[in-house]
Fold this protein.
Amino acid sequence: MAWLWVAVGLVILLFSGDFLVRGAVNLAMRLGIPALVVSLTVVAFGTSAPELLIVLSAIYEGAPTLAVGNVVGSNTANVLLVLGLPAVMATLDTRQFDTRRSFVLMLIATTVFAGFAMTGMFVWWHGLICLAVLAFMLYDQSRGGDASAEDDLEGLDPTMPGRKIAMFLVLGLIGLPLGAELLVRNAVVIAQDFGMSETVIGLTLVAIGTSLPELATTTMAAIRRQADVALGNVIGSNMFNLLGIIGVGALVGNLPVPTEILKIDIWVMCAASLLLIPFVFFGQRIGRRWGLALLAFYVTYLWFILF
């Protein structure tokens, strides 16, 4: 039954996150908030809401190592799985846009995260610094962004009635904590039944589950030949996971970093991030061969930590 409840919790999380984004985006636009600001804040935080609720629920359930494992595992999956699988189906041409600035910011976020992780525990002042760095990065992005982003704003529907906006917000705010609690509580049960650590469950089952929205978005972007959306989605999601999710989590409670993450997983995450350099700086297309290579790397990594 634990597997069933994990699946139920994951489905609730995914739908609730989508409801929250749709409701929040349309409410923000109704209030006259610029589209670029909404894109950098409401949408970004909304799509990261499942990871945030997982972290908070893990702290509440007494499984904080699952929270850190989820962030590290999600960032690794975002690069290797979320970019790899769509690239097998359709080539992503990265020469038509410039994501160098965003990518450098993501590398800075990765460095800050890794540096704090080496202390063995994320504490409240780590959280404050992470959130401050994130705020600076959002400000920097807003200065260099395109103020005409409204046409591409996810979930925007100018004709949506107020009661529907309210319904989406209520469903999202109720569903997210419910789904997170179901997923975390039963993921811990599965870990105990199979003799696996909470960290491994966070790195694999929970991480892949919470990366599904990014996978869906990137797959559709690949089919539509929107490489900028695909790569930007991965870079933005990773940056928010490292700074926003861990930042808020560390303010709520201490987050110990398991030894196995410090030895292997955090370095795999960093290596996966650096694999984006040819696509970001040299305009290398992410074609089928690259996609297969990324997937092979990810499958090898999963095999290593599971067996």
Remarks:
- The first helix runs from residue 2 to 30.
- The chain has one domain: 2-306.
- The chain has a mean pLDDT of 85.
- The longest strand covers residues 121-122.
